[in-house]
Amino acid sequence: MIHGPPGAGKSTLALQSAPGAPWLSSEMDPAALRAYARRLDVAPPLGVLVIRDQLRAASWLRGAPVVVLDSVPPSWEDFGELDRWRLDCGVDVVVAIAQEAKDRTARGSLRLPHQADVVIRVADGQVKVVKNRTGPTFEERLNGH
Fold this sequence. Notes:
Layout: E1 2-4, H1 10-17, E2 23-25, H2 30-40, E3 48-50, E4 66-70, H3 80-89, E5 93-99, H4 111-115, E6 118-123, E7 126-132, E8 138-141
Parallel strand pairs: 1-5, 1-6, 2-3, 2-4, 4-5
Antiparallel strand pairs: 6-7, 7-8
C-alpha cells in the first residue's frame, strides 16, 4: 500500500516499481498515465481500465502477477473483497494507492494499513517504508529533494 498527499509521487513510485503492470484507475486518464510512463522512461501499463466497479470490471486482468489499484476508495473498510478477487484471478500482488487524510494516515478504514504486508508513505520528498512484514523499514530521500 502506498499513501501520501496529492502530488507527492505515489503514482510515480508505482509506475517505477511495477513497470508494465495493468492498472485499475479511478483517477488518472489512461492516455495521461501512458504519457507519464514515457516521460519517466518506464514501461507503460499493460492496460489501463478506468473503474467505477473495481472488481467486476477487471476480469481481463486474470493471471497478471502484479496489478496497480489507483486509488483505493475511501469507503473501503478492508482489503477482504480485494484479496478474494486477487486470489480468484490468480494475481500475486496488488499495489494499492491511497490518498492521505489530514492526520497523515491513509484515507479509509484503519484496517487497510493493518492488513497490507507493506505500507509506504510518500511525502515531502521522502519515501518511508512504515511497515514491512517481510523485511526492514527505512526512509529514503527522493532525487531532487
